Structure formats: structure tokens, C-alpha cells
Amino acid sequence: xxxxxIDVKHVAELARLQLKEESIEQLQxxxxxxxxxxxxxxxxDVSGIEPTAHAALLTNVYRxxxxxxxxxxxxxxxxxxxxNDEAIKLPRVLPGEGSN
Amino acid sequence: xxxxxxxxxxxxxxxxxxxxxxSVELVESLLAxxxxxxxxxxxxxxxxxxxxLAMAKESDCRRATNSELSPYDGIPIGIKDCICVKDDYVSxxxxxxxxxxxxxxxxxxxxxxxxxFIPFGRLNMDEFAMGSSCENxxxxxxxxxxxxxxxxxxxxxxxxxxxAARLVPAALGSDTGGSIRQPAAFCGIVGVxxxxxxxxxxxxxxxxxxxxxxxxxxxxxxDSAIILETIAGNDKMDSTSLPIENNTLDYSSIFSKxxxxxxGVKVGIPKEYFEADGLAPAVKQAALDxxxxxxxxxxxxxxxELPHTKYxxxxxxIIATAEASANLARFxxxxxxxxVEGKDLVDTYFASRGQGxxxxxxxxxxxxxxxxxSGYYDAYYLxxxxxxxxxxxxxxKAAELCDVIFTPVTPDVAFKFGAKSDPLSMYLxxxxxxxxxxxxxxxxxxxxxxxxxxxxxxxxxxxxPALQERKLFEVAGVFEKYGVGAKFAPAE
Lengths: 100, 492
Description:
The structure holds two protein chains of two kinds.
Chain A: H1 8-14, H2 24-38, H3 72-76, E1 82-83, E2 87-88
Antiparallel strand pairs in A: 1-2
Chain B: H1 9-17, H2 23-41, E1 44-46, H3 49-64, E2 76-80, H4 107-114, E3 118-123, H5 157-164, E4 170-175, H6 181-187, E5 190-193, E6 213-218, H7 221-231, E7 266-270, H8 271-274, H9 281-296, E8 300-304, H10 312-327, H11 345-356, H12 359-372, H13 378-401, E9 404-408, H14 423-428, H15 434-439, E10 442-450, E11 457-464, H16 469-484
Parallel strand pairs in B: 2-3, 2-4, 7-8, 7-9
Antiparallel strand pairs in B: 1-3, 4-6, 5-6, 5-10, 9-11, 10-11
């Protein structure tokens, strides 16, 4: 896998990130350097090793469902744009012409 | 009135108790100090002065009627900008959260408030805690109080610089790969990365959920013990919080009967840390001098191996970026924060994220997306999780041989602004701190000396197995008092 070229534009599409055209070349170089570095893990034989997803090694935590005061009303004040102070205004969902 | 060079939380506790100062006087004098010094250091992003003074007045009223919430009632504490304080801004030093006001207190902050501590200001950081120098803040570059041309470290650089400059007696930071311990070492203060799961992450804006921990940054070990026992313990709002009740934790009582030696304590010295490439001669010498002092104090020095250390940075930059790419997906300009209007909904996501996130955050989101993307998951993410198991086992084996592990915190002292422009060289500066976040161990960074050439602080790290914080505080406390014997303050 060493020497892989990374299609930064494709990865940015997946991440929903608009990149500045002039920064793409540098980003690609940086990412390829970093990925070449992390490829050093390939020296290790990890067959039969269990993965660690979490340092705390806890099992599922269950609790009763309880009704609590939601923060929604307060959080609404942080919304970029509101309708009647009670709903978040969204940009149009379907692409096309016409007003929002 | 207050000798700032001697300021500690336990010292202020005694001054408040004896009526030698009031909380209002303390807050006012700290605000005056911020006004005088922080123009150059730039550690605070903002301070809600009215809120801090109002809380100080309430604290003084409680004391006047002998109804203080704890001996620490009325003592201010700085808060890193990724930790929520109710009704205050929380921005993670990012443009994408400008402006967002937190509707609730993080558990760490609500526990501090319950003891009367006063949240004091929002401290600068690398954007979303991604960085090792504070240079990735979208607001300002924080300077190291020991040399204004050098970085304070990161990502909790504002926390470290404000405490080192005695603008606030203590601060909360967060540590995902060294973000408390590295800036603490660069600024000559104490910083603790607690055992994963000991401190609730509720109200900490998530960077890498399996690694993030909130911890104290203070002027001595005793102060870190005081803050940690206040904020730690089970919280039903965080399902990864360990089942240990807050009222069963006691770290600070160690200091009322601190031993004067380390007899019987086994201190592990991992050769991988002492022989690492890029370890500066001054730091290596300080580490070897410290080992001699540990011996003189009666500690038994044990040579140990942590053979998978050299893979820790690679594992970290797979796991942390993968988790970050998922965690940061919620910032899309729709429900809160900054929106950059596009031609439709999806275009608005792209534009808001493209313009709201800085360069390093974008780089890590891209890297995390890449390692999780179709065809690469097994090769990178799963493999990294398996190597994470090997790193964890290294520490488990070491724990059979020693009580604590002793290492440098950083390969070198604080560097100058712009010195690490290549992202990979910046990542590699975290080589000594990262493994503990992967394994879940606790670690403490203690200043031990000043570099004779640059005058910059040098920090050493004590590492203990999960939930051995009491041991960590005791060993570091003895070494601080009888091995180091001095505090390090920048010139006033």
C-alpha cells in the first residue's frame, strides 16, 4: 500500500468539506506523508490479537427511561436562523431553481 | 495583599479561612493581573467578569454566615474553551461555534461549582483540541510566559499559560494524546491525565471519545489532587464513566502526612523513552538527574520495556482522527453555530464546514474519513485497534514489575512559533504522552528543572496503572517536595 496516492477531493466529498482549490495539493502531500508514516504498523503481525475499542473496557450500561427537561428551547437560541422563534430555518433540501 | 508568586489553591484556602482575603478581592486582583499581563500572553479568549464577581460576592456572603460550600469556596478556576459552563460561550477556539452559548454545565464544572469554585474565563486552545502548540486556535496565538517567542504547548495551551503566569490559581484542561501534560511541561506547571472514565466527559466537546479526559492543571501536586477529587467519580450522564462514587475518592489527605522518602516504591524506567530518537540532550540529562534523585529518596529503580511505544503515534493518528471525523460530523451549520449559506442544504453543509473549520481540523477530518472509508477500514482502523491492545498489554506487563513508570513528558523544551510547520513533525512531539491515552493509564506531568540554555521548564511524567491516582499523587508529591524542592515561575 506504500506510495498510495490519495484522492483528497473524493475524501472531502465523503466528509462534506468544501476545500479551497489552492490548498488541495498541500493537503494531499500532508496526508500521503502521514499515511506513509502510519503504514509502519504493517511491520507488526497482529493475527489473533483482539482489537481494543475502548480503554475503560466497560460493558453496556443500562438505565431506566426517565423524562427530563430538554435543552431544546435554550439551544434554539444558538440556531443560525429561526422561524417564529420556535423552528430552525433550513436551506432548501432538493436542489433546483427558485426561491428558498 | 496576595503574593502571586506563592499562590496555590491550598494557600488561598487558608487565606480565605483566616479572613486575610475575600473572594471579591481575589477575583478583582486576578482580573487586574489579567489586564496587566494577558495582552502579551493571550491565554484567555474571554472572561465574563460580572458573572465571576457576582459568584465571588455570593461566596463572601456564605463565608460571612459560616455556610461556605467547602474550604475552597470562592476560589477561581480557569476553564478550557471545550468544557461547557452554563450560559457562557463554548467555542473550542473554532469559527464554526461562533457564537454558541452552552445551555448546561459540564459535570466537571457543576462539581466545582458545588464546592464553591468560581469558573473564571474561557481559555485558549488548539481548535477542537487538535494540536500541540495552541497555534491552531482560530482566535489568537497564546505565548509561553517563560519566553513570549515560544509556544505554550497544546492543546490546553491557554490553561497552562494562564496558570504559569499566575493569572488564575488553577485551570481545567482536556487530554486526548497529551494535551494536558505536554503544555504543563512546557509552562512549568503540574498537569494530570486521569484514568480513562474517572472524570465524566459530559459537557466536554468530544474530539476522540475513547481517549478524551478532563483533568487539572495547577501550580503543585496537592492542588491537582484537590481538583481531581472534586471533579472525578461516576456520572450517569456519561455511560463510559467508571462505577466509582465521588464521595469515596480522597487524594488530598495524602498531603497532611506526606512521607519524606520513597522507600519501597518501585519506579520503572522504560528504555524506549530514554533512548528515543530526537530526545534533546538537556531533557535526557534532566531525566537522568531525576532518576538519581528518585534513588536517593529510596525508590527502587527497575528497568522495564514498553516495546510497542514506537507505534503509539501511528495508532493514535488513526484512532483519534477516525473518532474525530465521526464526532465533528455534527457541526454542519444547521442547528447551531455559524452557517455559510449554500445553494441548497447539502451545499450549505460543505460551505459551513469548509469555512468554519481551520486547516488542521480539516486535515484530521480528512484523515479520519480516509482510514474509515470503504476498503481501508481493516487495513488501518482495525489494525490500529489491535496494536492498541499490544500497547495496553505492554503497560499491564510493566505493572507487574513496578508501581509507577517515570519518563520525560516531551522530547524537547517548548519550541518557537512556526518551528514545526510540518504536521507530522508536530504529531511526533507527542510521542511520550500518547500511549497512556490509548492504554487508559493515568499520568502526571511535573516540572523538575529549567533548561540552562533556554531557561525553559522541563517536565517529567509519572505513569500509574488505571485508578492508581492516589499512588501517582503520593510519589509525585514526595518527589516534588524532596526531589525537586522548587517551583518554577516566569519573570514578573
